Amino acid sequence: MQHFTALVIPLIILFILSHGLFKKVAVYEEFIEGAREGFGTAVRIIPYLVAMLFAIAMFRASGAMEAIIELLTPLLSLFGIPAETLPMALIRPMTGSGSVGILAELIQTHGEDSIIVKIAATMFGSTETTLYVLAVYFGAVNITKTRYALQAGLIADLAGYLAAVVICFWFFS
User: Fold this and answer.
1) The 3-state secondary structure of 83-102, one letter per residue
2) Which of 57, 72, 76, 110 could potentially form a cystine with 81 if both were Cys, beta carbons 3.0 to 4.6 Å apart?
3) Residue 162: inside a domain, yes or no?
4) What percentage of residues in the chain have a pLDDT greater than 90?
């Protein structure tokens, strides 16, 4: 199996090249054109990325995250939800790398077998970086009227958060 997995990417490349030759497509020229378009897209989304990263940095540096956690802790404790998982719920819709940092911090603080880490890891796998996706992808194609995309994405993230709590308590408690 290890030898097969080492051959997968070269086989895919060989398939693409041979298919292009069979269909009489100028494969190299098409590759160059695609790379040119990809570079143009990357340049177009840079302002959206910078704005998103700036907003995340300001959110964390301002103390807003800590204030929200402090405000919601009593409510979460009524339902038995560990307040330590709230930073993941707040940061995950904004950034993947930030949520990885939070997960690593939780692992270091509570240990990898704690229910808190299991909930946070399940949230990480079952939610999306909604604000990042909307900013970058909608910005890349110049969509300004997003309709219900933000609300739907955040509701899905909330559902993922609550499902992670319920499922982890169900399986691990």
Assistant:
1) HHHHHHHHHCCCCHHHHHHH
2) 76
3) yes
4) 57
Given this model, what pLDDT does residue 45 score?
79
The pLDDT assigned to 112 comes to: 92
Q: What is the pLDDT of residue 114?
A: 95
Which tens digit of pLDDT belongs to each residue from 21-33?
999 999 899 999 9
- Phi then psi for 49, rounded to 5 degrees? -65, -45
CB distance 103 to 88 below 8 Å: yes
pLDDT at 89 over 80: yes
Whether residue 145 is contained in a domain is answered as: yes
Number of domains, the chain: 1
> Which tokens is 59 given?
């959110």
Q: Is residue 17 part of a domain?
A: no
The span from the CA of 165 to the CA of 160, in Å, is: 9
The first and second tokens of residue 7, run together, are 């051959």
CB atoms within 10 A of CB 32: 11
Nearest to 116 by CA among 95, 136, 129, 102: 102
Q: Is residue 36 part of a domain?
A: no
CA quadruple 83, 160, 136, 13: dihedral sign: positive
Q: What is the span of the domain harbouring residue 127?
A: 45-172
What is the residue whose two structure tokens read 């707040």?
90
Note whether 93 and 127 are within 8 A (CB): yes
**Chain position carrying tokens 């989304």:** 45
